[in-house]
């Protein structure tokens, strides 16, 4: 309780202790204190009295009073409040204080010049009061701030209301400089056209096209203006120029088609369609310069147009623009479509334009451009060479093909065509030299060896052909050795060299024991005397059959003893042997083969997939007679052991 009283006790200030309690010699009364305070108080400042003698002093006096008014105090506090200015000026106008209202508007547009409503209200007030010059001055002040289009158009309409055409034209000139837009120029031109000033209107449109250019609405308005002036050709030119400049202008194209239907003919409509397609292709190649299909379509369009109009330069221009878009990388896949631009260009110059020198130059520039160190195109070399042949320039053709062989990494097509050309010209020695160079460059190419030998054989150079085949089969590596051996064997067969042919088969069997080689050898032996109709023909046929069976028997023994795992090849061999015995007729003996034929067995084997799943697949297995006999013996042995166990158990 004592603690609560202590906390709630009011603490009074500590009294000041007076050390000297003796009375002062001079005593001051309360009256003296009040009198001294009044004497020291400053006197009140009152406004001076004024005598107003004229209207100017009266206006100044009223201005000071307004500044002290509520409106002025509000503006001093928030001068950016638009509504406050509007209500203040409206208040002055309703009370017919016109100069005061004018003063408010003047201050408003000075402080906030970007508020268009102030200018409109200010100008409207001056115009309603008949102060045209004041309104014009206000417009001029406003235009210095470059307002929007509506502000300029309001100024123009103001001048036109008072028949000030020249002033309106001057405002339009400043308007298009302040707002260089198609709509500004179109409004200016319509103003001149409405006033009958055709030349001035045309000049405005021409300035707009020069300064602005690619605007669809501008070209439509210009063409329609010329159409209204009965200048049909001018309008047509403007439409075409606009389509070339604008690109994909739907409205412009639609208007042009309607115009041509009304004033043009079939050719004019075709021109419109061509122009439209031209614009579309321009748009495509602008967006994707490496889109060679678009360039092909564009060039085709210009070639078709040039065939009727004869404008070859336009076709050349498109070709030049197309071939200027070189693929970005030295990889053949990027160049495959591009190279055909050059080919088509050269063919156009030769066939359509009939300019031989330009065609030759196109081929030359193309061959310079292709990066032959990385890849080449045999097609362009051959086309250039064929072009020279058509120009009866055989020396130039050979020079081109010689360079191609030395430069191009892929020479196969070039060698083949070069040899073919020289062969047609009857240049045998040149063909031989080309074949030799071909083999030096590609010694493992079996096609070349066979063609070279075939070439010599066609010239009745049998020993040369045989020597070429011998060189071919002696090569350590060949891409298709079976092709060379077959060609060599067929060559000897065509020459009737039976022993040489047999010797070739034997040499081939030393290298490979393939099933097809055995069968081919056997068929050769069987067919050697098929057409012999002499008296001893039967004996010779029997000899052939004997040789045939000997070949098959050698093959059968090889597959049986050396490669028993090749069951399928042995089965095919026996099947061919059996069919041949049947084909021998009365001289054949199928029993020789029947005892060797296997039994076909359908079996299943498990195949494990990558995901671990097991799948069973059927396959054909072959069980040959010796295997069947061995299997039977195993069964008998197992039965004997079982019986012996039974006897021992008893």
From TrEMBL:
The protein's name: Pre-mRNA-splicing factor Syf1/CRNKL1-like C-terminal HAT-repeats domain-containing protein
Physiological role: Involved in pre-mRNA splicing and cell cycle progression. Required for the spliceosome assembly and initiation of the DNA replication.
Location in or out of the cell: Nucleus
InterPro entries named in the record: HAT, HAT_Syf1_CNRKL1_C, Syf1-like, TPR-like_helical_dom_sf
Family indicated by similarity: Belongs to the crooked-neck family.
Major location category of this protein: nucleus
Pfam families cross-referenced by the UniProt entry: HAT_Syf1_CNRKL1_C
SUPFAM superfamilies for the chain: TPR-like
Lineage: Eukaryota, Viridiplantae, Streptophyta, Embryophyta, Tracheophyta
Assigned keywords, A-Z: mRNA processing, mRNA splicing, Nucleus, Repeat, Spliceosome
Domain of life: Eukaryota
Domain Pre-mRNA-splicing factor Syf1/CRNKL1-like C-terminal HAT-repeats: 69-279, 353-503
Ranges for region Disordered: 1-24
Listed GO CC annotations: post-mRNA release spliceosomal complex; precatalytic spliceosome; Prp19 complex; U2-type catalytic step 2 spliceosome
Annotated GO biological process: spliceosomal complex assembly
């Amino acid at each position: 309780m004592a603690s609560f009283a202590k906390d709630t006790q009011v603490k009074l200030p500590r009294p000041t202790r007076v050390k000297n309690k003796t009375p002062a010699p001079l005593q001051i009364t309360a009256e003296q204190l009040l009198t001294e305070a009044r004497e020291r108080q400053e006197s009140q400042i009152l406004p001076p009295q004024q005598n107003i003698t004229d209207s100017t002093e009266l206006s100044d006096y009223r201005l000071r009073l307004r500044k002290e008014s509520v409106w002025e105090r509000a503006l001093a506090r928030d001068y950016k409040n638009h509504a406050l200015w509007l209500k203040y000026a409206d208040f002055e106008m309703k009370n017919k204080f016109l100069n005061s209202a004018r003063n408010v508007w003047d201050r408003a547009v000075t402080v906030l010049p970007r508020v268009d409503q102030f200018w409109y209200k200010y100008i409207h007030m001056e115009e309603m009061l008949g102060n045209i010059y004041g309104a014009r001055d206000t417009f001029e002040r406003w235009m210095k701030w470059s307002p929007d289009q509506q502000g300029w158009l309001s100024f123009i309409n103001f001048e036109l209301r008072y028949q000030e055409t020249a002033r309106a034209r001057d405002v339009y000139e400043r308007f298009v400089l302040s707002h260089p837009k198609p709509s500004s120029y179109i409004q200016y031109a319509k103003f001149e056209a409405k006033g009958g000033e055709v030349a001035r209107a045309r000049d405005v449109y021409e300035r707009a096209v020069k300064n602005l250019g690619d605007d669809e609405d501008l070209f439509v308005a210009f063409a329609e203006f010329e159409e209204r002036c009965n200048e049909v050709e001018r309008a047509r030119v403007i439409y075409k120029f606009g389509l070339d400049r604008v690109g994909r202008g739907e409205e412009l194209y639609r208007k042009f088609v309607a115009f041509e239907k009304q004033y043009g003919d079939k050719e004019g409509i075709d021109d419109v369609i061509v122009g439209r397609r031209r614009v579309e292709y321009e748009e495509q190649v602008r967006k994707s310069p490496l889109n060679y299909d678009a360039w092909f379509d564009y060039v085709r369009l210009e070639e078709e147009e040039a065939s009727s109009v004869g404008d070859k330069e336009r076709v050349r221009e498109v070709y030049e623009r197309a071939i200027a878009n070189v693929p970005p990388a030295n990889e053949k896949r990027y160049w495959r479509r591009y190279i055909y631009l050059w080919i088509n260009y050269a063919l156009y110059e030769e066939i359509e334009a009939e300019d031989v020198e330009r065609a030759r130059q196109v081929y030359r520039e193309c061959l310079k451009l292709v990066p032959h160190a990385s890849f080449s195109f045999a097609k362009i070399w051959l086309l250039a060479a064929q072009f020279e042949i058509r120009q009866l320039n055989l020396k130039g053709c050979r020079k081109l093909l010689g360079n191609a062989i030395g430069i191009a990494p892929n020479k196969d097509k070039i060698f083949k065509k070069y040899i073919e050309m020289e062969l047609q010209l009857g240049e045998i020695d040149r063909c031989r030299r080309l074949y030799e160079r071909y083999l030096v460059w590609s010694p493992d190419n079996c096609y070349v060896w066979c063609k070279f030998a075939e070439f010599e054989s066609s010239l009745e150079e049998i020993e040369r052909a045989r020597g070429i085949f011998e060189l071919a089969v002696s090569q350590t590596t060949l891409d298709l050795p079976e092709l060379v051996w077959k060609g060599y064997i067929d060559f000897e067969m065509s020459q009737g060299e039976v022993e040489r042919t047999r010797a070739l088969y034997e040499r081939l069997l030393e290298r490979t024991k393939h099933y097809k080689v055995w069968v081919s050898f056997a068929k050769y032996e069987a067919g050697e005397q098929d057409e012999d109709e002499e008296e001893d023909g039967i004996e010779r046929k029997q000899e052939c059959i004997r040789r045939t069976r000997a070949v098959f028997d050698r093959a059968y023994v090889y597959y049986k003893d050396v490669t028993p795992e090749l069951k399928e090849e042995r089965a095919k061999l026996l099947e061919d042997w059996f069919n041949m015995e049947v084909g021998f007729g009365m001289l054949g003996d199928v029993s020789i083969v029947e005892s060797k034929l296997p039994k076909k067995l359908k079996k299943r084997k498990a195949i494990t997939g990558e995901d671990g799943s097991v799948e069973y697949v059927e396959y054909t297995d072959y069980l040959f007679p010796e295997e069947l006999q061995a299997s039977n013996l195993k069964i008998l042995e197992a039965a004997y052991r079982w019986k012996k166990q039974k006897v021992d158990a008893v």
